[in-house]
Inverse folding.
């Protein structure tokens, strides 16, 4: 795979994981304000973007698995880092959502 194609895939990963990261932060803001349905929608939208990023990553992995030489470019390393960081942030946001909802339910019960 040539450098231009690797760069293109890397930017697709960065684009979609960046969009997902923004949505996760918006979801966290919504949770803080007890807008749980909005937060859930933001997290679902983030998942859609992460899936798009993951699909771009999978394209590279499939080509590598079929024996094609994939030269590791710095931009690709950056893209992978961006994707994995955003995936971890989303996992934590899902846990925060559970916590915020539990706290809201306990507060309503008082």
């Amino acid at each position: 795979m040539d450098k231009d194609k690797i760069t293109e895939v890397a930017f697709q990963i960065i684009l979609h994981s960046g969009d997902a990261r923004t949505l996760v932060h918006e979801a966290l803001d919504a949770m803080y304000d007890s807008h749980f349905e909005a937060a859930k929608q933001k997290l679902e939208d983030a998942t859609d973007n992460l899936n798009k990023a993951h699909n771009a990553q999978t394209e590279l992995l499939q080509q590598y698995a079929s024996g094609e030489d994939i030269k590791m470019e710095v931009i690709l390393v950056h893209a992978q880092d961006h994707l994995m960081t955003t995936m971890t942030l989303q996992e934590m946001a899902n846990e925060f959502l559970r916590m915020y909802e539990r706290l809201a339910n306990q507060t309503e019960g008082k």
